[in-house]
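The records we work with from here on pair a chain with its fold. A complete example follows; check for yourself that the lines match position by position.
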Amino acid sequence: MKARFQLRKLGLLRRLSNQNFIRDACQNAYLGDHIALARVLGRYKMFLDTRDVAFAPHMLTDGYWEMAHTEVMARLVKKGMKAVDLGANLGYFTLIMAERVGASGAVHAFEPNPHIAKLLRDTVEINSFARRTVVHEIALSNANGEIDFFIDPSRPMNATVHPRPGHEEVKVPTARFDEIADLEDCDFVKIDVEGAEEAVWAGMDKRIANPRPLTVILEFTPGRYGDAGAFIDTFEHQGFSLSYIHRWRGIVATSKSEILAKPGDVDQLLVLQR
């Protein structure tokens, strides 16, 4: 029987062998009621909704997701950090964060979809990360309150605050990042919130004003914002350097003009560091 995959082995030079190892170690079992349990990244157990046709198939058959992003995440999150996963979905990156921060660190995972948040909690528990991980069933925004949330059951990872025909509509609570206890000194934030990035950023004033070093991975899609250039200006005025995750080169420095030169509907994983 193969040993568990070691996160320290993640890296471009070993990517092919790593993917083969993880895929070979992938197993799954159907538990009933549209729920399956899978082994992912050659070491974790994850609960999945089998009606999901966007994310779950990759976990059930390959056991990994967005390998370049996975490699960067494992590199940037370190022991003792306080890490935040905004748009945690079923917890793939939450699990990596929880292992990397260790017992001396902490993870806060935010997932407003009630059904997915339940599976996320179960996944955190079954991997013995509950003591260092808090799951928040709320959407972060620029104000405390409530918002309509639109969910496609076949693609729950793409749930959004923007209306979509045929999507299930639910009301979810919202809060400002700065209003959540224990986040004022966080070290690392991943933001993947399907178009709500500007609202989330506007709710982080206190943390951004804190001079403590901060790294943010943010999914940036220019066409989703009223003024994408002004949003980028905000990052730079607040002292963040601009980089992005390249599929084959890892973290690569970039600029406002290069970001805006890409098609407006293309998701870019920016790395903002200060």
